[in-house]
């Protein structure tokens, strides 16, 4: 950890001579950014608390809550080209260091729980993607579940790990090599990704891991790591090299909540870096209809008798669930709804803007849910109120720039994270043209 | 339903089941209702729906209802409307409830004094707002417009459900959405680990469901496809069933909506029986439905329409970048939506000809021609 040593020296020189301060500050801030989520060291939340007029801090606390919601919400809405068809290998550390209890109940159990959440959320967000799970135990890479598009298989496989105990040392290299093998045959139009949950501070490898990293780059495999203990140099190196110099793929968890956030961030399809990275292609897919038979018949995928199912639109084999690959002719079978599920990544809803008091008089209640907004204060208080609130709207109103309706923070959050629709834009026919002020709620 | 049954009454006091919120989306496209005039005029349909709403409110004293109109050019709230909220029990700034709620009702209050108050409030507001909505509709807006703003209505309904769920959780302390996220996932059986997802125990939160009374076709609402699908997925995530009661028209998305969210889909053969259908099929809430055999449609049309010719396909081609569906490889192999140059793979490749066959032909055509490796040694000019 040469990193921390350097920083310590830097702080000493800062004390010694003043003219180096600016220089040091810059390098230090840069370094801090690279370290991921270590900003908490210097944030003193109690200093931002201001007593309200009534002598309580409830208004500030409410403001902080709202600012927190808002911060989580603001994201880049540039319509990036994203890798919607993903192939991801999830590598779980199952070594001795996972039995630590610094994350409750243990690192091991929490990781398994979040891994299950991750699998569910991953298929929710990426319905036509493939996932596989590996484990690092006793110096070996163990296959937990094979690459497949069926979440239940992964969930049961991860559930089965609960009865086992973490054991031995992990080998990052073995895990990466096995993941590389699993991703080797995947088609070029999809992404190839590896997500490692790494609880150890070492990797006992049989060979040169740098060589493995070079082959991963050659195979266009991106690696992301969630570290549970502390930052490890080889992990940072691995993430930055396989992601084209971008180190944000490596995060070290601060607490349980941060752990979860880091894992869930990976469920969003990654932006495609360049055209040549993934050759786009036209995929042939079948859209089967559901059938219900009078007598049970065996399905082609599991050979289990069932009455319902989907018939492959090319060869007529019966599969029991979608999305799937036809076991007999290899055609990808999906529902059109699976495709539609990914559309909100491709056409994201624009961020809503904060409304200053000046324009706030237009609305008295949230357009979508009818929650009344706080009334307008006298004009001379506008400036002070707006200075107090950072990262949130002073008037508690948020405006969609397309339809110019005002919404509350909860609807803002709900619209951007769950529905991905703007209630205002969808409620008005754009073809009608005439702006109608007679909307029941805003009037 | 349980609360109606007297034998369950004492048990109810101890368990205190969570109330349910019913959101009714009424399609009010004037064209479609004009076509239905002979069998079921709008006024009678609204009366039937109001009876149904009253039945829902009567099931549990804490049950709630919301009504959204999905009109031809906009979606609007019919109930609750905040502007007239002084009478529906919501407090003003001092926390007092104003007591003169009857004064601004347009309905003749003298005839309705004996009506149960929650029923009357809903009826008055729905009638008044619907009238205002229909009167504000200009003839030009209606002309040739046979679609309905379903996406907007669904989004409004979902926003309201979200608001009520948060409020209910705050009031009752129990299932706070933020906290439940941490609890979800302990068992393998729970379905989704999202922040907004349902708790493992469904009984402890506000039960919400959406009922869509559909009359107009959605054939020209192709531009609404993505928003409608987004709303459907949101419902699926939040475990909100979408029930569909189709009076006329052809609602393609709605079949998928009720199927994806495990709601009830019914196409009424006889619109005059609306109230009966509503009472029998749509009144039970999620808890009661577990014990019932529900009328569901088994053959759901899942086929996709291609983006190029609007043909319904069962084998199609999908652009790997924007996921557009085509019925045949697009001209020039460039995606019609995003313009990406696509590699069609092996599709449409003609079978490779055997090179020997070609050579044979060439030799026959020009026997004296040079170039074939076999013939080089023989001819010697």
Automatic annotation (TrEMBL), chain A:
Domain of life the protein comes from: Eukaryota
Family statement: Belongs to the GTF2H2 family.
GO cellular component annotations of the record: transcription factor TFIIH core complex; transcription factor TFIIH holo complex
Species whose genome carries this gene: Penicillium alfredii
Entry-linked Gene3D superfamilies: von Willebrand factor, type A domain, Zinc/RING finger domain, C3HC4 (zinc finger)
Purpose of the protein: Component of the general transcription and DNA repair factor IIH (TFIIH) core complex, which is involved in general and transcription-coupled nucleotide excision repair (NER) of damaged DNA and, when complexed to TFIIK, in RNA transcription by RNA polymerase II. In NER, TFIIH acts by opening DNA around the lesion to allow the excision of the damaged oligonucleotide and its replacement by a new DNA fragment. In transcription, TFIIH has an essential role in transcription initiation.
Keyword Ligase in annotation: no
Protein name: General transcription and DNA repair factor IIH
NCBIfam families linked to this entry: ssl1 (TIGR00622)
UniProt zinc finger (C4-type) residues: 312-329
Disordered, as annotated region: 1-34
Acidic residues bias locations: 1-19
Keywords on record: DNA damage, DNA repair, Metal-binding, Nucleus, Transcription, Transcription regulation, Zinc, Zinc-finger
Cellular compartments annotated: Nucleus
Signal peptide region: none
Gene Ontology molecular-function annotations: zinc ion binding
One Pfam entry name: Ssl1
GO biological process entries: nucleotide-excision repair; regulation of transcription by RNA polymerase II; transcription initiation at RNA polymerase II promoter
TrEMBL record, chain B:
Keywords of this entry: DNA damage, DNA repair, Metal-binding, Nucleus, Transcription, Transcription regulation, Zinc, Zinc-finger
Main localisation: nucleus
GO cellular component: transcription factor TFIIH core complex; transcription factor TFIIH holo complex
Pfam family, one: Tfb4
Biased composition (Basic residues): 355-364
Region (Disordered): 349-381
Superkingdom of the organism of origin: Eukaryota
Single GO biological process annotation from the record: regulation of DNA-templated transcription
Subcellular location: Nucleus
GO-annotated molecular function: zinc ion binding
Function of the molecule: Component of the general transcription and DNA repair factor IIH (TFIIH) core complex, which is involved in general and transcription-coupled nucleotide excision repair (NER) of damaged DNA and, when complexed to TFIIK, in RNA transcription by RNA polymerase II. In NER, TFIIH acts by opening DNA around the lesion to allow the excision of the damaged oligonucleotide and its replacement by a new DNA fragment. In transcription, TFIIH has an essential role in transcription initiation.
Assembly and binders: Component of the 7-subunit TFIIH core complex composed of XPB/SSL2, XPD/RAD3, SSL1, TFB1, TFB2, TFB4 and TFB5, which is active in NER. The core complex associates with the 3-subunit CTD-kinase module TFIIK composed of CCL1, KIN28 and TFB3 to form the 10-subunit holoenzyme (holo-TFIIH) active in transcription.
Family to which the UniProt record says this protein belongs: Belongs to the TFB4 family.
Name of the featured protein: General transcription and DNA repair factor IIH subunit TFB4
Source species of the chain: Penicillium alfredii
Lineage, highest ranks first: Eukaryota, Fungi, Dikarya, Ascomycota, Pezizomycotina
């Amino acid at each position: 950890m040469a990193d921390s040593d350097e920083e310590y020296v830097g702080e000493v020189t800062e004390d010694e001579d003043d003219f180096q301060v600016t220089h040091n500050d810059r390098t230090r801030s840069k370094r801090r950014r690279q370290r991921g989520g270590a900003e908490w060291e210097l944030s003193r939340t109690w200093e931002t608390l201001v007593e309200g007029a009534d002598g309580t801090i409830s208004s500030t606390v409410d403001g902080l809550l709202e600012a927190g919601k808002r911060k989580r919400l603001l994201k880049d809405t540039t319509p990036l080209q994203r890798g919607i068809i993903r192939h991801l290998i999830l590598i779980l550390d199952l070594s001795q260091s996972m039995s630590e209890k610094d994350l409750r109940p243990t690192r091991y159990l929490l990781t398994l729980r979040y891994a299950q959440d991750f699998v569910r959320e991953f298929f929710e967000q990426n319905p036509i993607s493939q996932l596989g799970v590996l484990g690092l135990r006793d110096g070996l890479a163990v296959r937990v579940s094979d690459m497949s598009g069926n979440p239940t298989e992964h969930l049961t496989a991860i559930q089965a790990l609960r009865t086992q105990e973490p054991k031995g040392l992990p080998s990052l290299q073995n895990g990466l090599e096995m993941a590389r093998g699993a991703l080797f045959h995947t088609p070029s139009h999809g992404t190839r990704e590896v997500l490692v949950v790494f609880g150890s501070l070492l990797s006992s490898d049989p060979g040169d891991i740098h060589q493995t990293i070079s082959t991963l780059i050659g195979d266009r495999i991106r690696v992301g790591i969630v570290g549970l203990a502390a930052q490890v140099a080889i992990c940072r190196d691995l993430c930055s090299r396989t992601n084209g110099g971008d180190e944000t793929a490596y995060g070290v968890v601060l607490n349980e909540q941060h752990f979860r956030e880091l894992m869930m961030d990976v469920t969003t399809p990654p932006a495609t870096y360049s055209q040549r990275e993934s050759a786009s292609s036209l995929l042939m897919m079948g859209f089967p209809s559901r059938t219900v038979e009078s007598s049970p018949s065996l399905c082609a995928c599991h050979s289990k008798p069932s009455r319902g199912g989907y018939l492959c639109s090319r060869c007529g084999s019966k599969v029991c669930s979608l999305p799937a690959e036809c076991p007999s002719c290899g055609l990808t079978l999906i529902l059109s709804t699976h495709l539609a599920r990914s559309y909100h990544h491709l056409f994201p809803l624009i961020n809503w803007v904060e409304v200053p008091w000046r324009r706030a008089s237009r609305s008295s209640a949230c357009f979508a849910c009818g929650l009344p907004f706080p009334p307008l204060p006298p004009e001379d208080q506008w400036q002070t109120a707006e200075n107090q609130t950072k990262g949130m709207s002073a008037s508690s109103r948020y405006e969609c720039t397309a339809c110019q309706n005002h919404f509350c923070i909860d609807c803002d959050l709900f619209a951007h994270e769950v529905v991905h629709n703007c209630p205002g834009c969808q409620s008005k026919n754009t073809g009608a043209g005439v702006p109608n002020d007679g909307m029941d709620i805003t009037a | 339903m349980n609360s109606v049954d007297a034998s369950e009454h004492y048990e109810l006091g101890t368990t205190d089941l969570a109330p349910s919120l019913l959101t009714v989306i009424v399609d009010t496209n004037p064209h479609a209702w004009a076509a239905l005039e002979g069998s079921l005029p709008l006024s009678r349909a609204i009366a039937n729906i109001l009876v149904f709403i009253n039945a829902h409110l009567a099931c549990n004293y804490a049950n709630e209802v919301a009504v959204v109109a999905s009109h031809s050019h906009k979606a609007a709230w019919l109930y609750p409307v905040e502007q007239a909220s002084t009478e529906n029990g919501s407090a003003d700034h001092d926390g007092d409830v104003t007591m003169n709620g009857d004064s601004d009702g347009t309905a003749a209050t003298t005839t309705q004094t004996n009506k149960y108050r929650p029923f009357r409030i809903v009826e008055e507001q729905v009638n008044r707002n619907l009238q205002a909505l229909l009167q504000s509709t200009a003839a030009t807006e209606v002309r040739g417009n046979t679609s309905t703003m379903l996406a907007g209505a669904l989004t409004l309904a979902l926003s309201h459900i979200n608001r009520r769920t948060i409020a209910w959780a705050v009031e009752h302390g129990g299932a706070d959405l933020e906290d439940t996220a941490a609890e979800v996932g302990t068992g393998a059986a729970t379905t989704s680990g999202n922040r907004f997802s349902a708790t493992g125990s469904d009984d402890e939160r506000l039960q919400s469901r959406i009922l869509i009374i559909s009359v107009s076709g959605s054939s020209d609402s192709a531009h609404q496809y993505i928003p409608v699908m987004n709303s459907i997925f949101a419902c699926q995530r939040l475990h909100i069933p979408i029930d569909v009661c189709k009076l006329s028209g052809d609602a393609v998305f709605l079949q998928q909506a009720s199927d994806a969210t495990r709601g009830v889909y019914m196409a009424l053969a006889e619109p005059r029986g609306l109230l009966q259908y509503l009472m029998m099929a749509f009144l039970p809430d999620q808890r009661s439905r577990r014990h019932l055999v529900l009328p569901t449609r088994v053959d759901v049309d899942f086929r996709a329409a291609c983006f190029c010719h609007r043909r319904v396909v069962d084998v199609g081609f999908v652009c790997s970048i924007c996921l557009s569906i085509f019925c045949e490889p697009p001209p020039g192999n460039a995606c019609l939506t995003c313009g990406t140059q696509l590699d069609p793979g092996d599709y449409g490749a003609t079978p490779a000809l055997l090179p020997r066959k070609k050579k044979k032909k060439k030799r026959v055509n020009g026997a004296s021609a040079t170039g074939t490796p076999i013939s080089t040694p023989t001819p010697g000019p």
